[in-house]
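Reply to dn_fold:

You asked what the input looked like. This is it:
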Amino acid sequence: MTTRRRTVLQGALALLGAAALAPAARAQSDGVRAIFWGGQARAERTFAVFDLFQKKFGTAPVASEFMGFNDYWTKVATQTAGGNAPDLIQMDYRYIVEYAQRGALTPLDDYLGKTLDLGDFDADQIEAGRVDGKLYGVSMGAGGFCLQVNAGAFERAGLPVPGPTTTYADLAGMVGDFNAANAGMRMLPDGSGNEPALENWLRQRGKALYTPEGELAFDTADAAEWFTLWAELRAKEACVTAEEQAIATGTIDTSMLVTGRAASGFTGVNELIAYQALVKDTLAVANMPLAMAGGKGGQYRKPTMMWTLAGTSEVKDEAVELINFFVRDLEAASLLGLERGIPSSAASRDHIVGGLTDLERQTLDFFANLGELLGPIPPPPPAAAGEISLSLLGTLSQEIGFGAKSPEDAAAQLVSGAKDILARAG
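and this is what came back:
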């Protein structure tokens, strides 16, 4: 009997339905429950590893569900608040401080060297999972953000495919040729409300989103310049319209790149595999556009996602065994490939490298080719950083796009609103 939830849950009705189904999943299985975000390609790889774990150890089936990134956090917050969180929660670097400090996660330190073996893990990936000195997250792979590009669209226009030194100004200068050759498509999505794009742009300028103490690290002038950059790109028809961008709901299939409205997208490097499965043209990964010629790259390596253990889990030992299996078993590594990033375990990396496809090698080579564009990882964002990213920044971006606010007014509201959110959370 299977307890797996293989339906992508989207929207308010789906979330309500999923909340009703969650207790049934526990009742049908004495095993581990897990939840993760991602598309179908990630889901199938994940299910295969869960099945392999069950086969090798004779455990009960792993009951699991997946959905798009934005809906995911609503679902996890609802389940956590209701005391019904799955045992394993796929965690983002942006949220780990918030969930750890509210007591929603179990520290994993007591399992190290026993059930959980991170002996050959990259040190930076281990440290990224620590909050206040305790280990809460186990990296499933190292990655970062990129501009994923529809190479075919640029080639049809006789234009060079964006590379590591391409600037925002370079892209703006290609608009005429690009649009003439690609009717109904723009070069860029509207990235003004995309937190990774904003963070990268700030880091290129020697700034950051947050200080190590968890305070806001940019000011109104920075925010106004960012919003103005995108207002100008919008006016030049280098990026999609506000109406088009509003269609994107945080899932791969609604992204501007997959729907064909834009020839690029700000994504995780590891997501190339999932996007290519849905796009006919050949895709490529490029560095985030530079703020200025010869500028810093703003890039850093971070866990693409981490497994964390819910504080309410009643099967903690088995759940940690599954985490360890997921990141250390060599057969599991072969099944997962690089879809969740470059494995943090040296043994897993060595095991899969010979069987990588050309597409997967792009992911592996991306960071190796960044050179000086790659910098240190910032501290984990403070609690409530997710609210700033998904609610405040996104809303203000849309209001500028629809003409309801000027870049300057939105910038002032972003800074004041972010400070208010951080103060409430602190």
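The domain at 8-142+302-359 is CATH 3.40.190.10 (D-Maltodextrin-Binding Protein; domain 2).
Hope that clears it up.
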